[in-house]
């Protein structure tokens, strides 16, 4: 097996690994909009690399259509996932037709006019544009608490897109006829592609974990604030309970310090009750026999 074949196989295995890892992660951890969509992309990329590996077993034309279409589909899915993850907005569904048209255009330059340089340029340009879109969304909508992580991810993906496009220009300049031949540029592209795939998936997992951590801290902070408010409210509630020592003659009440207070004063200090003074019928007859106070009765 040549070095190029080994790198292609390595990319295939890495993509398959992350597809499985995302599934396990989603079962154990909290995830957010866009996560499951992104998790689907490594599996599609796996099939794209398999279409390269089994080229010969399947016809070259089918392989060309499948590889180019699937790789563009991965990029579109990740752009959609990022938009959902960052701003909870899905990508325009019409953009999902892009992989089909790119694959169709590249196949045209195989069946009607076999120009691998044009096929490579079409696919590379499409990947470059989508990569820049992902990068722009990551930088524009990066949350303040994790700005460095999101900006780094944006720069990383933009560089990946630029390398893909540069490879397309070098491919034309070198007048090559095999997309992945045993030269240093093919090795660099596949090696960086492998690093990029690992990096993008790890960064996305970190983004999800960071958001979960931030949300957990915010929820805990809100809970603590609610508890404090409740404790404050409870501390302001004044209630009278237990046995109150009261004088059998003057009706004063003794507090915990041994001091005696009038009923009005004691109740006012130990509850939220307020007094409104009046005269009962018995006291009216006793103390004000010459005044008719019946109109004041309730």
Describe the protein.
- The protein is mostly helical and about 300 residues long.
- It has two domains: about 5-210; about 255-295, no CATH class.
- About 70% of the residues lie in helices and about 0% in strands.
- The protein has helices spanning about 5-30, 35-55, 60-85, 100-110, 115-140, 145-175, 185-235, 265-270, 280-285, and strands spanning about 255, 260.
- A two-stranded antiparallel ribbon has the order 1-2.
- Strand 1 and strand 2 form a beta hairpin.
- Helix 4 runs antiparallel to helix 5 and helix 6 (about 145-175) runs antiparallel to helix 7.
- The protein is rod-shaped and about 125 Å long.
- The mean pLDDT is about 85.
- Residue share in helices? 55-70%
SSE string, helices as H and strands as E: HHHHHHHEEHH
Helix/strand structural class: mainly alpha
Q: Order of strands across the biggest sheet?
A: 1-2
Alpha plus pi helix count:
9
Overall geometry comes to: rod-shaped
- Termini separation (Å)? 105 Å
> Strand-residue fraction?
under 5%
* Tally of distinct domains: 2
Please tally the β strands and state the result. 2
pLDDT averaged over residues = 85
Structural Rg: 38 Å
Which regions contain 5 or more consecutive residues with pLDDT less than 50?
A: none
What can be said about the biggest beta sheet? 2 strands, antiparallel
